Amino acid sequence: MNPFNFNGNNNNDDQDNLEKNILPFLPDNYAVVINEKAELKIGKVGFSYTSLFFGVVPSIFRGDWYNFSCMIGVELFFTMLLTYVTGMNITQSAQSLGFTFQIVWGFLYNLMYFRHLQNKGFVPQNKKSAVLLKTKKFFK
């Protein structure tokens, strides 16, 4: 059973019904994107406090394995670079850079998430989401 009474067809009745059921409850800084299979993704546009506090973990909960791999790869590269340059062991390097990466992912993760969704064929579901994503430069 579909609680939103939305079947993926882009006729006005379904879109109006979806907006009446979901969108009024979303804060102004959240965007809704949809693909041709009618998969709906809702996400925050702006700073990611969950990434600030939990690092790469939010990407796991979103099932965003591409960005998870990218984030882990960047962290490993810079950890090994710091280890090589300073002579610290790898554990000390990882601990030294840990909070720095959390700050970086706080600023970048939501942008990376929406850009990846756009590359996978997702488009804004409504005008509000389209304006928000384009003004904040989350969609090209």
What does this structure look like?
This protein is mainly alpha-helical and 140 residues long. The chain has one domain (12-135). The protein is 59% helix and 9% strand. It contains 6 helices and 3 strands, in the order αββααααβα. It has helices at 12-21, 49-54, 57-61, 65-86, 90-119, 127-135, and strands at 30-34, 40-44, 123-124. It has a 3-stranded antiparallel sheet. Helix 4 (65-86) runs antiparallel to helix 5. It is elongated and about 55 Å long.
SSE layout and pairing:
Blueprint lengths: L11 H10 L8 E5 L5 E5 L4 H6 L2 H5 L3 H22 L3 H30 L3 E2 L2 H9 L5
Helix pairs in contact: 4-5
Poorly predicted regions:
none
Name the average pLDDT: 88
Helical proportion, percent range:
55-70%
* Estimated structural class: mainly alpha
Q: How many helical elements? A: 6
The oligomeric status of these chains comes to single chain
The ordered H/E elements are HEEHHHHEH
